């Protein structure tokens, strides 16, 4: 009839984390109780796609092998917001009108002005992430002409990269 807050206590039982909630003492014969539980569980990054709870009603007064038990499986969904930031150094580049690309040259200045593009991928949370793939398409040709000469690719923070086939193709 009325709503009451339960007194629940976490403890370890047989190597398992258990939460014990006292529903009533004494409880009248034939009483019907509906219980809504809200659990806050942390550290679920490596549990897979679901977590299972085993719920059981036990009476201290009349131990019975037929104590009601139910298993509830709850899907785990990770939530994380990723943010990509990028900048170019220098921010603006203008080639002189007299400049011409020198085919076959191994001198860096014959291939244009150096521009460095820096990208940072940030996890804004709340969950952790792994196995993230960032695909970055860089237009390096305009028709048959070199638009950007891709010199090198570097990473920080334990990331793996697959290199573009046109990366430093003239071995400058």
From TrEMBL:
Lineage: Eukaryota, Metazoa, Chordata, Craniata, Vertebrata
Gene name of the record: Itga2b_1
GO terms, molecular function: integrin binding
Entries under InterPro entries matching the protein: Integrin_alpha_Ig-like_2 (IPR048285), Integrin_alpha_Ig-like_3 (IPR048286), Integrin_dom_sf (IPR032695)
SUPFAM superfamilies: Integrin domains (SSF69179)
One GO term (biological process): cell-matrix adhesion
A GO CC term assigned to this protein in UniProt: integrin complex
Residue intervals of the Integrin alpha third immunoglobulin-like domain: 83-171
PANTHER family: INTEGRIN ALPHA, INTEGRIN ALPHA-IIB
Organism of this sequence: Dicrurus megarhynchus
Pfam family, one: Integrin_A_Ig_2
Record flagged with keyword Glycosyltransferase: no
Subcellular location, principal: membrane
Name of the protein this chain belongs to: ITA2B protein
UniProtKB keywords: Glycoprotein, Integrin, Membrane
